[in-house]
Amino acid sequence: MSMTRAEERKLIRLAAAGDKDAAAAFIKCHQNSLYAYLLRMSGRPDMAEDVVQEAFVRVLTNLDRFDPKYRFSTWLFTIARRLYVNACQKHKPAYDSDMIGNWRGDWDLPSKATHDHETATNARSAIDVTLAKLSPEQREVIVLFHQLDWPIAVIAQHLGMPEGTVKSHLHRGRRKMKALFESDRKLSEQVAEVWR
Predict the structure, then answer these.
(1) 23-31 CB contacts, 8 Å cutoff, 24+ apart
(2) CA 99 to CA 130: how far, in whole Å?
């Protein structure tokens, strides 16, 4: 579910005034994509759930600080990212590839034959393994760009870095993932199954 800027502003005004339905609409609109993003970043469902919950609490209690010239989602993801960084100082990421691969974000898994589903699951698992081997910056840029379809400019603003640096992290991360796939026969086969 996405909303226009006008709908977004109206909901912000209503939620800031205490309208619980408006607050619920924000949560419903952004919860799945925020959880999927944090799960890919942390590799831990428990951490992703905690950060999502805390992010919504912070956002909804500080709506008066929101600057409407920006997208609400950018503000929400920035707050969640800061909370995630703080949580990482307490916990070292431990990836559970099966759990991460099964979480799909806002999109639904279409009905598929068992073989097709297993193939897709294997490919996601291989991608998760290689993502875990990237630097945190490369992993975050790749997840934001490829999973959430954020443009380079929005990623740069979100991460507080120049667009050229974002492009470098994206390029180096892709190159490292490709090298990891090429150097590991099992991973390479899992991903290649998708394109057969």
Answers:
(1) 23/60, 26/56, 26/59, 26/60, 26/72, 27/56, 28/1, 29/1, 29/2, 29/3, 30/72, 30/73, 30/76, 31/56
(2) 15
Domain assignment present for residue 24? The answer is yes
CB atoms within 10 A of CB 37: 25
- pLDDT tens figures, 145-190: 888 888 899 899 888 999 999 999 999 999 998 888 788 887 777 6
> To 5 degrees, how large is the angle CA 96–CA 97–CA 103?
100
Q: Which domain holds residue 50?
A: 5-90
pTM over 0.90: no
User: Amino acid letter at 21?
Assistant: D
- Residue 54 sits in a domain of what CATH number? 1.10.1740.10
The C-alpha atoms of residue 180 and residue 166 are separated, in whole angstroms, by: 21
Query: How far is it, in rounded angstroms, from Cα 185 to Cα 153?
Result: 36
| Token representation of residue 158 | 């979100």
